Amino acid sequence: MLSKNRIKYINSLKIKKYRQVHQSFIIEGAKSVLELLNSDFKIEFVLVTKEFQQKYSSILTRHNALLETVTAEELQGLGSFQTNDSCLAVAKTKQNDFLSPEKTEYVLVLDDVRDPGNLGTIIRVADWYGIHKIICSNDTTDIYNPKVITASKGSFLRVNVFYTDLSSYLAENAAGKNIIGAFLGGESLYDFNFSATGGFIVMGNESNGIGEEVASLVTNKITIPRVGEAESLNVGIATAVMLDNLRRQIPG
Fold first, then answer.
1. How far apart are CA 94 and CA 163, in angstroms?
2. Can you give the pTM of this predicted structure?
């Protein structure tokens, strides 16, 4: 049976303040937890149902993670899933390590993306299109938010994220590189030629787009042409469109 202290600790990790204090976060669901076991993240413990433990016993025995058997009822309400009848893990967060692009690499830059679901989707999209690094503004939502982790479907394990002041970062690290920004007005994405020398692709806030400071550093303002009557695109979808066109020209 789960102790009250264990329940209190897990619930506290839903709040950014306590994730930072404990330097820990929650991962839910069979797929993500199984991938976590094979990653380089340090795992505190894994809560598993008997059914999950039996089904994946050969995998679980290959790892040294601390396992605690619980009932499906005990898992209910602990995470962000409405229903979770398999497992939940707590792992240690990683340091906010500096990231810079390799010689011909494209890096994704996020300016004030606030919605956790959007960030998780963007991480998943980046993983799909072979983007391994995302540079986030300091006010972009926390990657370890449970909703971000859930929406990323395990892709947070393969995509590295660095939080920093974007204006300073781009000014210091983008010399000689294209900084491509998504705007409602600009050159058509379908007419734009992505450089084989790599660069930065900047996506902005859900409501306000890319902020003025970062916009002043953008070298190429790109728009996704609108054919219908929708006012705008979700930033996750817009990121997918941008990266799809990148990979049509420059395969990963």
1. 12
2. 0.95
